[in-house]
Amino acid sequence: MSSQDEQRPPTELELGAYFALIEVSSLLRHTIEQQLQEVGGLSYVQFQLLATLGDAPTGTRRMTELADGVVYSRSGLTYQVGLLEKAGLVARSPAVDDERGVDVTVTDAGRDVLAAVFPGHIAVLRELFLDPIDSDAIAGLGATLTVIRDHMRRIPPRSARPRNGRHQTS
Amino acid sequence: MSSQDEQRPPTELELGAYFALIEVSSLLRHTIEQQLQEVGGLSYVQFQLLATLGDAPTGTRRMTELADGVVYSRSGLTYQVGLLEKAGLVARSPAVDDERGVDVTVTDAGRDVLAAVFPGHIAVLRELFLDPIDSDAIAGLGATLTVIRDHMRRIPPRSARPRNGRHQTS
DNA sequence: TCTCATCGCTTCGAATTCGAAGCACCTAGG
DNA sequence: CCTAGGTGCTTCGAATTCGAAGCGATGAGA
After folding, report:
1. Domain limits, chain A
2. Count of pairs with CB atoms under 8 A, one residue in A, one in B
3. More confident site: B118 or A154
4. Where are the beta strands (DSSP E) in A12-89?
5. Residue A153 has what pLDDT?
6. Which CATH number is A12-154 given?
7. Could you tell me where the DSSP H helices lie in B8-161?
8. At residue B1, does pLDDT exceed 70?
9. What's the Å distance between residue B65 CA and nucleotide C23 C1'?
10. Are strands A60-62 and A102-106 parallel, antiparallel or unpaired?
């Protein structure tokens, strides 16, 4: 951990990219969240979950898959899926091949909500994020961020660290 | 609001950029938050607040300025500044020229914590965000995101909407 | 087969977040 | 000077988040 802190300070350019990234995503997410709330009564997380399920070929995913896709804690996921289930937008069922697992599936109502919310979502996305830059910039942005994302995914075991080694890192 | 929903669906490229943005910032923030917590017992928000104050020429800012810079709600800001004050990292004092305003100032202890946390912060930043791409890509990323950010800042009045007209939007 | 460490998910309590309402102050109009 | 409306921040209650602990199921080794 404290192997070689000997690193040069980031340039202004690097810091600028970092700050801009944080602020843009923060602002964008905030605005989208409002839109989702107004139109479909969804939080951003709930939308992400529904969208992830909607993307799945069968509309079904395991809890763990959802957790990984959304970066949130397992307990938070349980909570949100619970809300979605109570709202009738998803259904939970025990996984067939593993009695401990839980499969989550979008319901038709869930797909309806998704469809209802999407246009507004896109509109905000366009207005805030896509409109101000040309398509070349978008392509570049996407390419760079994708590289970073793939790199990040490789580095840390996100949602499933070793449960608890009997020796801490110290 | 529903003036012309007639918009073409986003291309795969555009969606990719959007998703990558959300995931990268989410992952990055999450990891940085862990680092900050371990080293300085700071949450990301607290770090942002301290850093913002540290950047200010006099180490002092108004509450509202802080809220704008960090995008959070006013009440949340009050809460966090309260925590920082209790920890002795910042000091609150009534603004000189406006009795209702509150000036927040970093203390020496606050600057110490900031200094203690910074190297780790940078290390994570490098490892996750800067290392995987070359400096051209970083420059491009920063430029594009800055354009978007400036655009976003112009659009919505962030933390201080009209208090409440006597007629809602409905 | 039996045993035990591990895995997938949920429950629990604590911390953080937000919006609405409230309080004190400022500022313009009479 | 007095009043009315707007501004800056805080308080309050509800909702969401997380990590740690708990529970049943799984699977590898004896």
Report:
1. 12-154
2. 166
3. B118
4. 60-62
5. 79
6. 1.10.10.10
7. 12-40, 44-55, 63-70, 74-86, 108-124, 135-154
8. no
9. 21
10. antiparallel
Cα–Cα distance between A107 and A54 in angstroms, integer?
Answer: 10
Mean local confidence (pLDDT), B137-153: 92
Scored b (16 or more CB within 10 A) or e, B132-142 reads: bbeeebbebbb
b/e map of B77-89 (b: 16 or more CB within 10 Å)?
beebbebbeeeeb
Residues 96 to 135 of B: which have CB under 8 A from any A CB? 119, 122-123, 125-133, 135
What secondary structure letter does DSSP report for A125?
A: I
- Architecture field, domain B15-154: Orthogonal Bundle (1.10)
| Chain A stretch 55-74, residues whose beta carbon is closer than 8 A to a beta carbon of chain B | 71
**pLDDT tens digit string along A26-39?**
888 888 888 888 88
Contact A50, A42 (CB under 8 A): yes
Burial grade of A135 (CB within 10 A; 0-12, 13-18, 19 or more):
exposed
How far is C-alpha B125 from the geometric centre of its chain's CA atoms?
A: 16
- The answer to whether A121 and A35 have CB atoms below 8 angstroms apart is yes
Are A104 and A60 in contact by the 8 Å Cβ rule? The answer is yes
CA–C1' gap, B168 and D21, in angstroms:
46
Q: From the CA of A96, how many Å to the nearest CA of chain B?
A: 30
